[in-house]
Specification:
Elements: E1 19-24, E2 36-41, E3 46-51, H1 59-70, E4 75-82, H2 88-106, E5 113-120, H3 127-132, H4 134-139, H5 146-152, E6 161-169, E7 172-181, E8 194-199, H6 205-217, E9 234-239, H7 254-276, E10 284-292, H8 295-306, H9 309-316, H10 323-330, E11 343-346, E12 349-353, E13 356-357, H11 363-370, E14 374-380, E15 386-393, H12 397-404
Parallel strand pairs: 4-5, 8-9, 10-14
Antiparallel strand pairs: 1-2, 2-4, 3-9, 6-7, 7-8, 10-15, 11-12, 11-14, 12-13
């Protein structure tokens, strides 16, 4: 069950001018389940993207990168239930065949179609099942299908992740709507497993890419469930330009900064929603590392804590075994770490001060914090002014069960 996360409603998700969506059931993994999403972008739209850094990136990721370099995007095709990863040349052929089928139906270039897949790695993509439902999908394209799309991209997710935000630019209302999926195999090196954000704002292509990359660093690049970077990670930002605003092409402009603020708000919500719905998660954890020499070393310490199975299982057990946190900080790889300057907190409760047990710490104080569903672990390094926050969750019995039974 997701930690303090409510499911979106269809009415909360606002349509984006110039975007239409459809879902279909291809029976890729389970009969009758909606598992294919088609997204149509109006002519003149721009897309920005970030993809997985995993060397074994999936076939659709390779094709997406190629197609984006060639021509503006008109369609996105997404399937769940099969990752089309670790499938070699056959996977590339399969992904390209799906793009060709969409292009034929949509009367556009094959390169104008971006394919995305999520699910089991190493299995052939059932091209025939996907292409068979495309005619139906085209007839179902509508602006208000975000809710259905958010559900169709889910795999082990227990809840759909979606939200809309609005921002006023010179009395012109700009809308952003985004959906994401992810629950396990989450340690992004760019974004999340799959996320699609659309806006009707007019933004230059180069600035759109810069905005996305900037937003990722404080959202999708700051989460982890289990430390595993997926082969299929992708995040796409689409801008149709149909809101009627003046073109945003200067990142330092007031309009650009207001838009980035709205984008960050939406991205952080979606990123944190993934952690709150982490496989088997019972607790949402913020790891706030302060007083670092630079952001990189703060992130290094934060991820060392977040990836520690001993820390994560102690969190699940509500056990204030703070020695596990201290040990993680110590093995994080920072050079010349001055232990006498280190302080560690559970929420506002100081557990380590000057590298040793805090004088007023008691087991009862620690237990009260650890029993909460949301906890902040704060580490002060005493090395500088840099800070970094990473969000993670605990490890429960269900995490093992879900992943042990993933293919059954």
């Amino acid at each position: 069950m997701a930690v303090n996360l409510s499911a979106p409603t269809a009415t909360e998700l606002k349509p984006i001018k110039g975007i239409r969506l459809a879902t279909a059931s291809a029976g890729i993994k389970k009969p009758g389940r909606q598992d294919v999403v088609l997204i149509e972008l109006a002519p003149g739209s721009h897309t920005a993207a970030v993809y997985t850094q995993n060397a074994f990136c999936a076939a659709p990721v390779i094709i997406c990168r190629e197609h984006q370099r060639q021509t503006p995007t008109r369609y996105l095709l997404i399937n769940s239930g099969n990752a089309n990863a670790g499938t070699g040349d056959a996977g590339l052929v399969a992904a390209k065949a799906c793009c060709q089928a969409v292009a034929q139906q949509g009367e556009c270039e094959t390169a104008a179609v971006l394919p995305f897949s999520t699910g089991v790695i190493g299995q052939p993509l059932p091209v025939e099942k996907i292409t068979a439902v495309l005619p139906e999908a085209f007839t179902q394209l509508a602006a208000d299908n975000w809710f259905a799309a958010a559900h169709a991209i889910m795999t082990t997710d227990t809840i759909a992740k979606a939200r809309s935000v609005e921002v006023s630019l010179n009395d012109q209302t700009i809308t952003l709507t985004g959906i994401a999926k992810g629950s396990g195999m989450i340690r992004p090196d760019m974004a999340t497993m799959l996320s699609y954000i659309a806006t009707d704002a007019a933004i230059s292509p180069s600035l759109l890419q810069k905005m996305l990359e900037t937003s990722m660093e404080q959202s999708f690049n700051s989460i982890t469930v289990d430390g595993d970077t997926s082969t299929n990670d992708a995040c796409i930002l689409m801008a149709t330009g149909e809101a009627g605003n003046s073109l945003i092409n200067d990142i330092d402009s007031r309009d650009a900064q207001q838009f980035i603020e709205a984008l960050n708000k939406l991205s952080r919500f979606l990123a944190q929603a993934i952690v709150r719905d982490g496989e088997g998660a019972t607790k949402f954890i913020s790891i706030d590392v302060q007083q670092g020499a630079d952001v990189k070393e703060c992130q290094q310490v934060a991820y060392t804590i977040a990836h520690s199975p001993l820390v994560k299982t102690a969190l699940f057990a509500s056990d204030p075994n703070w020695g596990r946190i201290l040990a993680a900080v110590g093995r994080s790889g920072l050079s010349d770490l001055d232990l006498s300057k280190i302080a560690i907190y559970l929420d506002s409760v100081c557990i380590v001060d000057g590298g040793q047990p805090a004088a007023d710490y008691t087991e009862e104080k620690g237990q009260l914090v650890m029993s909460q569903s949301e906890i902040t672990i704060r580490v002060k390094l005493g090395r500088g002014e840099a800070t970094k926050t990473v969000w993670t969750c605990d490890f429960s019995y269900d995490y093992v069960k879900i992943n042990a039974e993933y293919r059954t």
